[in-house]
Design a protein that fits this description.
The structure is a homodimer.
Chain A: E1 2-4, E2 8-10, E3 16-24, H1 26-29, E4 39-40, H2 51-69, E5 79-84, H3 90-95, E6 103-105, H4 112-125, E7 131-138, H5 140-147, E8 163-164, E9 167-174, E10 181-186, H6 201-219, E11 229-232, H7 236-249, E12 258-260, H8 261-264, E13 277-278, H9 280-297, E14 302-310, H10 314-318, E15 325-333
Parallel strand pairs in A: 3-4, 5-6, 5-7, 8-13, 11-12, 11-14
Antiparallel strand pairs in A: 1-2, 2-10, 3-9, 7-9, 10-15, 14-15
Helix pairs in contact in A: 6-7
């Protein structure tokens, strides 16, 4: 592993994406990526009794699908890096409690998939692990009642609000394989520009995304043109426009090579999602369906996947605090070395 | 890094403990370790307006004290591994939001200090980072109102209940230095033996501690006698008795070389703590005051530090779920190689 600047790393032995899978809810299945998900449940409870247990079930389904694609089982995994949005990460902890996989719990809000991939890649590159799982999820109904209001309350949504994706993504990284590969990464710092509106998380997270992208390009001597696609996690329409504007201030046009997973997963108008998708499951399921497929097929040669997380809680909002945010960037390439 | 069995690792370049510090509350200062903490606040709000902000302040104080001891500042840290018990880990996220330190958020409940040390050690051994921070905390009043009842309610405590430590610990690991050193580690799996009583977390966590210790000894061909001291995080009196009993079933007597941080931090009777201390801050502050001091002074040559976490939430309890638990073990030695 080689360090570049304060935040960036290049892998010495780039870990390979061995398998991946995404399980999502009905609304996500009706969106533009619907046909790409491994599993679309028409039942938002996924056969369980509660939304939280549904989220656990969704993680189990994504993990099982990822394992089955390559004929592996849980005992083949040396470590798991998992997390979600639920208090005390019960989605993940209950999904993995019967698996006997050595497990690291993460809390990076909606940046969890990127954070987990980054730590898994370090672990594999170091020789600590041969094969890892990164697993993350969110569930619209579980999130709404935890962060905002119970759905039955029928609260009106602000124009800047985003729609929490019901989805889970699982990625298996391995010390060997035909790729795509994780080649480099940039670890995010916590950025708080003073946004206090918990219904405008795109604006709260955009400066963190900008700072991490800026560090990635500067420290690794890269430019946006070095990537076929740069995606942020779940800034949505407003947040991703802000990232574009912040780069334009520097004289850099991100153009169509930049997009946001929250803008890709739903039809903005037809699906009434206001500012787009959000939640740990947003970037996780878009990565594990559309993006890794495109790297496998050759449609993309390289991808910069930037998970973004708003690190607030309802309590911090009630106490008048602004919203710290983080963004971790993970570079994928169809080639082992770039 | 070398792998042993399913869960254990030996460091190739054992990271050194460069500095550490603990900040605690008044009650902890009155306990048997009181004189060892770097900072004891007589004000349980640590000068802040809320318990949650007090927890953030405690983390900042522990970090600053650890940095000052060795004349370092925040920009000298390549990565931070942080977490706490508050929903969405706001203790840690708000502590680090102004620091510009590349940050990984963790959720391992009370195992967070051990989990963070383990990941930091992998990161340093791999060359990804030269110097890391691991930081964790808990606050009695913030925990009580989040997990149980607001303090003003005056709810009676069960005999098996533990007292959440108000404390924070910060450890700086470095790729060089005179130690003590992190030499080996065992990553925990999630263990759920069906305990549903959220007021008996010692019993819920004891099987996880036993499983991780068992794996550590078996995979690394070690015995309890290879350590001067083995401590679990916060099993308290009941949970640590269960660990002893589980080992006795195997014909192994842990004896006085085994103890629990939750039994060391308070005077059981005089401080009315029922089954002992708990919380992320329990093992973090005991490690960063008593235990690392004893490794430095030579009173201990080696230590097995086992963070234990109960991965429940109030919601999972309300939904009738049992309690998954985890235990991560980190071996410290005053010598670089063992």
């Amino acid at each position: 592993m080689e360090r570049f600047g304060r935040q960036s790393l290049k892998m010495s032995r780039p870990p390979a994406v061995e398998s991946y899978a995404a399980a999502v809810g009905k609304k996500e299945g009706q969106g533009p990526l619907g046909a790409l998900f491994d599993l679309v449940s028409q039942d938002t409870l996924f056969g369980q009794k509660t939304w939280e247990q549904a989220e656990t079930q969704m993680q189990k389904l994504a993990l099982q699908a990822a394992l089955e694609k390559v004929g592996l089982c849980e005992k083949d995994l040396d470590a798991a890096f998992v997390g979600d949005l639920l208090n005390q990460c019960i989605g993940s902890n209950f999904a993995l409690r019967d698996t006997h996989i050595p497990t690291f719990g993460l809390y990076g809000a909606c940046s969890t998939m990127a954070e987990g991939l980054l730590l898994a890649a370090i672990g594999i590159d170091s020789g600590a692990f041969r094969r890892t799982l990164t697993l993350s999820s969110s569930h619209f109904a579980a999130s709404e009642r935890q962060y905002r209001f119970p759905l039955g309350y029928g609260g009106q949504r602000a124009p800047t609000a985003q729609w929490t994706v019901t989805g889970a993504g699982a990625v298996l990284l391995s010390h060997r394989g035909k790729g795509p590969f994780v080649t480099a990464a940039t670890v995010g710092t916590l950025v708080d520009c003073g946004i206090k509106d918990a219904n405008n998380m795109g604006a709260a997270m955009a400066p963190a995304a900008y700072e991490t992208l800026r560090a990635h390009f500067d420290e690794l001597s890269l430019a946006p043109e070095d990537y076929d696609l740069i995606v942020t996690g779940d800034l949505g329409y407003l947040g991703s426009d802000l990232v574009r504007a912040l780069f334009e201030r520097d004289g850099v046009k991100l153009g169509t090579r930049y997009d946001d997973c929250g803008c890709r997963i739903f039809e903005r108008k037809a699906q009434d999602v206001h500012c787009g998708g959000s939640g740990c499951g947003c970037s996780a399921s878009v990565l594990c369906a559309e993006l890794l497929n495109k790297l496998r097929s050759g449609e993309l040669q390289n991808l910069l996947f930037c998970g973004t997380g708003a690190l607030l809680s309802p309590v911090s909002t009630q106490q008048g605090q602004s919203i710290p945010a983080v963004c971790h960037a993970v570079a994928f390439s169809s080639e082992r070395s770039v």
